[in-house]
Structures are given as structure tokens and as C-alpha cells.
Amino acid sequence: MEISTKIDPYGFREYDARWLYEKNVNLLGIQNLGKGLGTQIINHTKKNNPRIIVGHDYRSYSEEIKLALKKGLISTGCFVEDIGLSLSPMVYYAQFNLNSDAVAMVTASHNENGWTGVKMGIKKGLTHAPEEMKELKDITLNEKFIKGKGSEKEIKDFQKIYKYDLIHKNKISKKIKAVVACGNGTAGIFAPDILRGIGCEVIELDCKLDWSFPKYNPNPEDMEMLHAISKTVKENNADIGFGFDGDGDRCGVIDNKGNEIFSDKIGLLIARNLSSNHKGSKFVVDVKSTGLFNTDEVLLNNGCKTMYWKTGHSHIKRKVNTEKALAGFEKSGHFFFNQPLGYGYDDGINSAIQVCHLLDNQNKKMSEIINELPITYQSPTMAPFCKDEEKYQVVEELVNQVKEIKDNKTKVDGQEIEEVLTVNGVRFSFNDGSWGLIRASSNKPSLVVVTESPTSDERKKKIFEFIDELLQKTGKIGEYDQKI
User: Fold this and answer.
1) pLDDT for residue 268 is more than 70
2) Are 159 and 378 in contact (CB under 8 A)?
3) What is the pTM of this model?
4) DSSP assignment of 230-272
5) I need a surface site. Which of 101, 118, 152, 247 has the fewest CB within 10 A?
């Protein structure tokens, strides 16, 4: 029997909650999270019995986590509507389709086995941002719970409704041959059906659900997953390869030659494709994204503007919403399409669909379309270990150091820093369009480092070496997950 409630305060991240189950949270802790969330929803909606859509991903322990969460929600007076095994975007869509008051999705997305978490939202199409997370943390840890009488009901076959919504409005005329890779995560029972439904010929790769993730984590930023897709694309002479993360809100893309295309470049191609029909539109991209959005001639000729904003699905989603942007693109593969293309939230399958429209509209191979963009040398997203309780302070110190380097006109690889952007960590740019980024990861004990140069691969590496030197001097950095 569990005696006491276990819930590590560090599990309350910037825009969702994540813990190692049972090391940092137990079922009583999750139940308290449900009580906290239910209380927060009632406070915000001013309703005694708000309706909450709840779903879960395919991990061995996700259902028991969901049961504990529902128990907590019901104890505050919430009416829970359980749509069962889901993708995060299916839960977000259900809020619009069923017109409910809030959502809670049990998922740890692409995190390794052992992790669990909850993505939550109250306002339609948006998920919790740092402000709401802080409030939720306070209610939950200090047990400021409302008591009420709730209930629950099961919504059967909602998967069909979600699939139909994406299929019926997105038919394509070309027979695109697509490799669809799901890393044995939940997207396996959605993505192949939907892409076949719009008219693709689908080659499935690891679409069978297996919660042990036998090959690698379902993470389209993971080199191992990308290499597997690349190999399958080449073997099958496919037009495109798509990789989906564990809860289906992100998509990675491989071209017909088996080359990985970083998601920010895919975003730029989609933005170009949309800009001719939606002149004067706004786009929002995160600080990890390519500098090309600022200089792209197609976007500029169509009167489109791009804003760089904080990394994180919740931040970009909100910015797309408040700026009434047509779309938002995040380097990690979260794409957000606003009306008329979507409801503003991130859906990896809708992102893949938009890439299919891009191929459908042009009589070119994906490799030819990508070659029309100016060449830039981009690093993958690199994550050096840094303790949760130290990472924000480390970044703050580095922000000051980079500002100082700029003010002193100290040269990095022969060039002075021209611009420093601090909306999220520090992104510093040079005259030639090269840049580097250091920020704190919002869901893991690590920092995030990215560099890009339109000049040369060597320059990209030199900027990374400069960053790495700054980091090592702090004495608070551990191993990198991957490195150039």
C-alpha cells in the first residue's frame, strides 16, 4: 500500500508535467495533480461541473496514470469524457468537436520509457504556458483543492471522427509514395490510415504498437530514427519519409534521396507554398529555427512577416493565436496551422499532410524543392546535461557573457556578434547570417545548443566550439546526447 503522496516539484515543467514514474511521482501524486487541475479548471471556467476530455498514449503504465488523474478530476466536480487511446492532437481536436471546457492528455511524448506526464489546456487550441503551470503547481503542492461531485463517461470510436476530419478535406491528386515511421509509438494506429486516406501509397515502418520501444524512442529528432527512415525511403524508392513522435504532435521529414530535412526548413517550404494564396500573412518560428525566414525572397515578395519566439509548443501555439498568424513552425517538428488550415494546435499528421500538398502542387521531387532554398549548414539539436535546479541560472550567466562579448566587440571566428536575441535563452547572430543558440530545455535536465551558418560547415563548427568552451567553463555541464 502506498502510504504517502510522492510528487517531485521539478516535474512541473514550463508547459506540461513530466516525471519518472514511480521514482519521482506515484499514483497518489498523480491523483493530487488531477485534483489540482480540476480545481484550476473550475476557477478559470467558473463552472461547477466543467467537461474535461481525457486521453492516454500507448505506454504500459499510461492507463493506470490516467485512472488516478481521472479520480482526482472527478473528486473536484469535473465531468470527465474519456476518449481512450489517443494522440495529443486528437485530444485537442476533441475539445473543438465536443465543445468541452478543458483537456488532459496522459503522455511523456518522446521521452524514454519510465517517463510519464500530462499535457493540459483550458482555452481551446492552447496548452498550459509557464503562468498556468506555476498556478497548477501551487494548487497541487499546497493541496488547495475544491471538493465536488463529478462523473465520467467513455466516448467510443472518437478515433474515426478525428481521422475523418483530416482525410475528407485534404485529398491529393498525385500518388505520393510515403514511408510512415512511428517508432512503435501511438501514431502507428493513426498516421498510416490518414495518409492512405488522403491518397498516399504508404510504406509502414515500426507502426506496430509496442510500449517497450524495441528499436529507439519515437523521436523525429533522434538520428537513429532518421537513419532508419532514410534507409527505407531509398530501398523503396519513396517520394518522402515521415517520422512521428510518441504522441503524434511532431513530424520529421526525409526527402526522396534519403536526406533528413530539418523541420525549420520544411516549415519555410510550407510557408512559401502557403504565402502565394495567403499574401501578407504572419508566421511564427522558434529561436532554434533557421535564419532564412528573415531573408526569404518568396515570403518577402508576398508581404509575409516572420517573428522569432520562445521554443516550446505552448509558447509558439499562443503566439500564433495572439498574433493571428497563419502558421507557426518549431525546429523540433511541432507545426501549428491556424484557420483555415487547422485549429491552431500542433498535429504531426496535419504537418505531413501539408508537405503532401506541397508535393501535390509542384511537379518536382522533394530533393529538388529543398535545393531551391539557399544552402545553410545546420547542427542538430544538441543537449548537454545540466541539473534542473541549475540550468536556468547557467543560461542567465551565459546571456550576460554573450552580451559582454558583443559590447566588447570580441570576435568569434573572425566576426563580431551583430545581434543578441534573449526572448528564450540567448541567440546571437553575425553579419554573414550565422548564429548560435543556448537555452535551457523545458522538459529535461539539460541545455539546448544549436548553430547554423550559411557560409560553411567549418564556421558552424567554430560557433559550436565557442559555445562549448563557454559551457565547459561553468563546470556545471555533463555529457551531450549528441554532438557535431
Assistant:
1) yes
2) no
3) 0.88
4) HHHHHHHT-SEEEEE-TTSSBEEEE-TTS-EE-HHHHHHHHHH
5) 152
